[in-house]
Specification:
Number of helices of chain D: 18
Radius of gyration of chain E: 21 Å
Structural class of chain D: alpha+beta
Protein name (chain C): ABC transporter ATP-binding protein
Mean pLDDT of chain D: 89
CATH topology of the largest domain in chain E: Rossmann fold
CATH superfamily of the largest domain in chain E: P-loop containing nucleotide triphosphate hydrolases
Oligomer: heteropentamer
Strand content of chain D: 15-25%
Number of strands of chain D: 27
Family (chain C): Belongs to the ABC transporter superfamily.
Bound molecules: adenosine-5'-triphosphate, magnesium ion
Structural class of chain E: alpha/beta
Radius of gyration of chain D: 25 Å
Number of strands of chain E: 13
Distance between the termini of chain D: 32 Å
Shape of chain D: globular
CATH architecture of the largest domain in chain E: 3-Layer(aba) Sandwich
Chains: A mainly alpha (335), B mainly alpha (302), C alpha/beta (329), D alpha+beta (587), E alpha/beta (336)
Domain ABC transporter (chain C): 8-258
Distance between the termini of chain E: 41 Å
Mean pLDDT of chain E: 87
Strand content of chain E: 15-25%
Low-confidence stretches of chain E: none
InterPro entries (chain C): AAA+_ATPase, ABC_Ni/Peptide_Import, ABC_transporter-like_ATP-bd, Oligopep_ABC_C, P-loop_NTPase
Organism (chain C): Nonomuraea guangzhouensis
Order of helices and strands of chain E: EEEHEEHEHHHHEHEHEEHHEEE
Amino acid sequence: MMIITRRLAGHLARGFVMILVVATISFFIINNIPGDPMAARYEKLVEGGMAPEAAAQAVKVLYGFQPTGSLWQQYTDFMGGLLHFDLGVSVSRPGTPVLDVLTEAAKWTVLPVLVGTLLSFLVGVVLGVYAAIKRTGKLGDALAISGSLLHGIPQYVLALLLVVIFATLIPILPADGPVDILFDPGFNAGYIGSLIEHAVLPVVTYALSAYGGWVLAMKSSVVTVLGDDFILAAELRGMKRSIVFRYIARNAILPLFTILALSLGLLLGGAVFIEKIFNYPGLGLMLIDSVNDRDYALMGGAFLLITASIIVANIVADLFYTVIDPRVRSGEDAS
Amino acid sequence: MSDTLIPEPTMSTSATMRRNFWLGVWRVMKRKPSRMFGVIIIAGFAFMGVFGPMFFPAQLPDNPNAITQPPSWAHWFGTDPQGRDVLALVITGSRYVLLSAAVTALITVVFGTSLGLFSGFKRGRWDTVLMRVTDMKLTIPGLPLLLVLATVWKFGSPIQMGLVLGLLGWGGVARAVRAQTLSLRERGFIEAARGLGLSTRHIISKELLPSMAPYIAMNMLIAVTGAVYAQVGLFFLGVLPYESDNWGVMLNLAVFQAGAMITTNALGYLLAPLLAILLLTLGIVLVVDAMDEIFNPRLREE
Amino acid sequence: MADQAPGVRIDGLTVVYKTSAGELPAVRGINLTLEPGTITGIVGESGSGKSTLALSLLNAVQPPGRISAGSVEIDGLGDVVGLAGEQLRKARGAHIGYVFQAAQNSLNPLKTVGKQLLDLGRSHGVEDLRGLVREAKELLGRMGLDGARVLDSHQHELSGGMRQRVGIMLALVLNAHLVVLDEPTTALDMITQANILKIVREVHAERGLTTLVITHDIGVVAEVADRLAVMYGGRLVEQGPTRQVLGSPRHPYTRGLIRAIPRLVGDIDEARALPGRPPTLVTVPKEGCVFRERCELRMDVCDTVDPTVVADGARVVACHAVSVKEHAS
Amino acid sequence: SGSTNKSSSGGGGGLFTTIDVNRPGLDASAPANPYNPKGNSFSGFNSMRIAWVKNHLTDPNQALPGIAASWEIAPDNSSITLKLQPNAKWSDGKPVTAEDVKMSIGIAYTQGSTAFSVTPGAAGAAAEVTVVDPQTLKITQDMANPSPKFARGVLDTAVLPAHVWSSVLPADFWDKLKAARGEGAEAEKAREEITALGQKVLTFAPPKDVSAGPFVLERVNPGEALLVKNKSFFNAANVAPAQVKFLNYTGNEQIWNYLTAGKLDASGFVAAPTDVMNRIKAAPGSEVIKGYSPVAVSMAFNQSKKPYDNVHVRRGLAYLIDRDQVTKVASPEGGTPAITTTGIHQKAAQAWIPDTLPKLDPYKPDVAKAEAEFKDAGLTKKDGKWMLADGKAWKVSMHAPAGFSDWLSAQENIKSQLIKAGIDAEVVTTTDYPLYLEELSAGKYDVGFWLMALGPAPYDIFQRLYGASNGWTNVAGKIEHSPAGKGGNWMGDPEQIEVDGAKINPGELTGKLNSATEDQAKPIMAQLATAANQDLPVIQLWDYVNNQFVNNSRFTGWPHDDEILRLGTGVLASGVWIQLGMVKSKQ
Amino acid sequence: MITGTGITKTFKQRGNVLGHREVPALRGVDFEIAKGGSASFIGESGCGKTTLGRIIAGLETYDAGDIEIDGTPMSPLKHKHRQPHFRKIQMIHQDPYSALNPTRTIYQTLQAPLALRAGQTGRSKGWIDERAAEVLSLVGLDPGTVLSRYPHQLSGGMRQRVVIARALTVDPEMLVADEAVSMIDVSLRLGILALLKDLRERLGVSVLFITHDVATARYIGGDGELYVIYRGQVVERGPVDTIIADPVHPYTQSLLSAIPVLHGLELPGEEPVVPLESLAEGQSESGCLFAARCPFRGDGCTEERPLLRVTEGVPQEHACYYPQRRSVIARPMSEV
Ligand SMILES: Nc1ncnc2c1ncn2[C@@H]1O[C@H](COP(=O)(O)OP(=O)(O)OP(=O)(O)O)[C@@H](O)[C@H]1O
Ligand SMILES: Nc1ncnc2c1ncn2[C@@H]1O[C@H](COP(=O)(O)OP(=O)(O)OP(=O)(O)O)[C@@H](O)[C@H]1O
Ligand SMILES: [Mg+2]
Ligand SMILES: [Mg+2]
């Protein structure tokens, strides 16, 4: 327990520093973004037939509350706000605190990412074991190569192919948002069914693109464990196959759990392509939108949230390892 | 004892060794036909990147009367919304993609390797500081950062593009190289070299680097794929300035302008760059598979 | 389950490994009998096929290896080479205990010893698991360990010597009467080694076992074994009662080996290295005597003809030179 | 003026699916507030305006009735009197009164609109709002700087329920407004305060949607918004759909997808390549209704960059570029090739300057003429390549924002046309529109694309050409000119240009259009069009067409009348058609 | 002549922010090795032998004490200036597999240090090749066949010879052989030992032999000194044969008792000493480090740590309050 607390303390301290650094970086990057959102809005209004003066006034209303004051002042305000989880107010959605926008979007990212990752983890791990056991055969080769390929293919390629196939050529699955509005939100079959139907393609893409990595990782992990003496020893003691298998699986899967936690953290931010292609309104899509809208506050907030989730995932992964690996738990280094 | 015959291998020195090396590589490649295939693919892409654009006029001929055509004999992958041959676009576009990927790989590997080597070799305070920086770098998510950066910087040329991607990508390599360095450091032969008073330069360049060559080479190939994906992806998202024959722009236009998701006419326009990426991935996967054997003299000769 | 020390008869055992140069024998035409209740030691250098032989006793040669000929008859089990599936699995552990070459790593790092013991019990359908635990604690106590504490420990919490003892416990706890110990003391330091060897001897006697100890260290065999067999290049070149073999080795390899051991007392310069080096799977001669390259008594016939195994009372030697001498004398 | 169409049979029910093509990315957390840029307020559906202004070719004040059943405009444009729908009600059952409209006008002031602006000297601003009776209001124009489109500005105002929104405006708001109309520090402060109120308005989130339109917002999720019929709507009996579903989109390709799948009952125009267009048209029940959109796109020059300062170069380019081809590649359905450069949409041009139009140079593609012009400009041709007068290489560098795919297509096509003619060219993109505008007006580009001819008001049409971007600013009716490269003047035309031998100041002429009547405007328009045609600050490429996609599978009765189709920008036309009772459920 | 005084080394096992564990590996070790002489360190696993060897070879730092090489103390020198001194001391690693770079041929391995020498002394490339062949011949390998090989193409014994040859390229004054034969086939071990002995005799290279096998120590350095180390402390020190014949420290006695008896050839010693089991536990830091395991522990053993000294009637130095001779080693039957 002591070790866990100690590690946690260290991690939290480091994580906090990281967040400050990232916040600073994002603040300065974002403050240097060129392009005047006011000009664009003005153009839009004029194109829409509004008189130039009126358009100018309308724009002033919209952007009138833009931060003023010295850069340093803005910076300290920003950091001060951070301490209260105040990420400022979205520019493109006046009146809405960034945090609200983010939590709304995060909702839509977390669920499919979680499901997709866990799904791919399960399938990948099982097939990885298979690939390891059959590694000298054709099947093992096929699994490994397909794993490498799927691992190598960029997410957007997969996503595009899936859309072409399942939403365009054989239109059986929706690729337009998270749920059909006609169903009353809540715990009813229609709504949940619609949620699931809409999540199929994004989830499958996550799963497919992550699957290769799991297969490869699990394969190499199992191969390592298979070479470990204790497995042969267990067999020579006449242990049941199922028990030997459990030994293999548990030892092989251990390092993968760390990767799992990390990848969950990473995926929160890495979902950009999938969300863009499937119009899934999560953090990634929101990040793109905020970039396109020049919504500094939102952009910075999203970036910060994504980074923070990775930091948290790092910590969780480490603590998790501490809990499940007796070697680490007792303070020995398991490397 | 000494004036015994000057042994035969002394004369053979580097030239033969090099020959032996390539013979060994040949053997490794021959062992699995798939590797040959991978090498052919990669060589093909390299050729395409270097010489491909020379086969086409600087301005590809367009035809406003045959825009977004489905594949045909004249145009294997059809035409784009300007009526240009899609295949020609993919080929001429490969230079940008591959050049910037090469720059990325170079920076990633040179920067990552030197940093990892330095960190692992020096250890101590330097190591701690550098690894903290690396950790931090690794924690910051690449794609979102690129999205944000894309609004600040203009990635005007493939070199600049590669530069930025390279500067974002060295973390993993540095980590891996450091780990390798730390583990090799513990090996007798590094210690022996130190004991013999060999220079740090010798130790790093002659003892450490060759042992890490497979990792570095592997990382380089992975960096190449990573860079290709990242930049094509960014262009695809449309956050980078447009280049008419860039693969990512092609994807973007195919989807968002030509309607590849809607009409089969534009499918070729979408699939051509996708296939190019897939093929490149395949080539790299197949070659990475051989990397370990190529650099390990034992596996090479067996 | 045999409640008595079983006898083992290995007959014409050949084990081959598949390599890039084809299938090569790591163990070739071995005949060896383990008398019930004895400790037999097998010495041989690295790669001489000791572990392969030991694994053959459990029909557990790992791919790419396979037993290509011969039989291993164990009292109460029959020919192990013919066993497969559940039968084979049940024989392992319950009939034959195996103590692993690198016993340091023969335990699952994630589970406590106790849990692994229970797994073992369940695997063999032991109903009285409490009894099993009691038995294990007794065994461990017998070996000088605090049973309860050890069962509660993970592998990494035990020292090398303790792990090795746990290995022995797991080999014996199901009441196996044939025990194979593959390099039981390699990588242990001197004092621990002496301790383990003592335990092996005592447990052997107390439980009435048939024991096979495999090692590359003649000293170890000399300490524990009643009979000693010497392996070289996959062949058994000499065997016999330990004291006799050590006192008057017949095979030139055995002699060379004994002479190559530096001694604590006496004239150091008597110690002499064997010339040449041990063969590998690839370099071991396909026909003729496997030792001839390094042999001081080499004759023409050695190049072409496998020396026949000549038995002389309790002693067995396979050497052309020795048989010639005997014929001469 | 017009009246509500009451002839049709009642409801029929059903789900009406549509999309707001102007607003990608529905935001579930945004309020039902028409002023919030992401607000879930769909003009024509759950957001009502006083009336629905039309893009008439020449008369900016034409409109279809909204919450005002009818109105009267004083002949001199000095006032407008509104008569509200007699049984107009909010969705919570309360009647819509003149007070509601007055408060809505107050709110419009905080946001700035054409008629309700606190910017001093703004043209066409209202002077006074008077509630005549609960059904009648009178709004008078400040005649110091009048505008012929004053009525349009008044009519085009969203109406909001006072009983929900009243807290937003302070009790002394109208006094403040009066103060703001004055001069001096006091007025300045009042204006500041009103602008500050704008923030409050912008972010105001009514606890629930209270609509005077045919529908009321039920709920929104990130993918879609659902509206249900407003039972209290004055013409509810003739509103066909029981529910309206707004689909979200993030890119055009998604709209194409909806359309080809026949999912949408109606959609505004979205640019689509020919193949996609054909697929859309082939969808069962699919129909494209062509409307008028007073916008044209042009290739604009920065005259501080050589050789674009030379009119012969611009003319040469005009002769070179085949606008038919450009349009065919870039916007085959959404645009018609410009007949020539006039600064006016060709449809409007026919109405405004029918006599002048035939006299203008059509700049038909003609290589010989182009080369002659280039030679006039001192350019030389070497090895088949055109060089600048000083012997340096010439490369036409065109800029466009990355997301504007039709512009990019057009530029790619122009590039290839130019290269064929021996002029080196390139297309450079800028990440996005805001940055594009910023860099364009900072004078960073040689050549860029520029929207213009933003009718129907004559001033709006020409101020894109001879307004701020070209150096002329209109401050309270006074025209000032800043030199090229200063004050946002990136086009850089000289202050005086020669047209048919006479020197004119196009900026001043444009300024005059702001207060001219239709008859006064016509000759000025002709003069300006001629100036644009001869001086070519831009080359007009194509004029936009406002196509509407509708589907007859579930609903019918779509209007085909050109007049009705010319609804102003920002309005979801199908919502207006529905509330007017034109759209019927298919039985 | 290489001497060490009070060499102390404590490893800090990496913990995190809140502290680390300290592992005392050496506790003030003194030693002295004459030119051309020999010394052997023996002791159980983990007693600090390797650490000491590495410190002597200049591959590890030490916390206290000092090493003098040919009269020059090392501590005051900067790292750069220490190096030439330490180059005279070459380490032969236990594991010949990892001691050679698998990616470099034997020629390349030998050439690098030779090139360095050649550069310093201005010799030609021809000299390098010649010398490479020469050192290989010195260790009994055929240069013609070995030079172009990669390490994996050689057997363990040959590899260990190459390692020794590589050490010889810098003309060392001392070789530190850390368990140099424990990973080599039994039949070949003696060959390597003989080689080291031979090098000592012919080239005057002193040898520091680190092992847990006393008999091999005797083979190489029968005329040298034996240091018995327990938990980082030298507990007995003296001429090899003296200690083997008459060990006085109970720990030395346990070590010697543990040597297997070749039953056909030898008779076991009469008073074998078996330490009380409790190696891992009770590693108390006070008093005699061995006290907890010592069957002969007496008064005061657990209070103050005995230091290495000479007492009456005992020829060798020892660190025991109750030194007593015991007959622990096996004797050849022939002698009886
Ligand atoms: N999986 C394998 N594939 C190929 N050859 C093998 C394999 N396992 C063992 N061998 C070969 O078989 C021979 C005998 O091996 P074995 O492990 O039985 O030797 P050993 O006497 O136990 O040696 P050691 O003392 O090193 O344990 C060796 O030459 C070895 O190289
Ligand atoms: N780099 C290190 N970091 C921490 N502890 C170390 C390190 N090197 C050695 N130790 C510890 O120092 C002690 C002495 O180790 P050393 O390797 O010198 O023992 P040894 O006598 O050579 O053992 P062996 O016979 O097993 O080789 C051991 O407890 C070991 O765990
Ligand atoms: Mg073995
Ligand atoms: Mg050691």
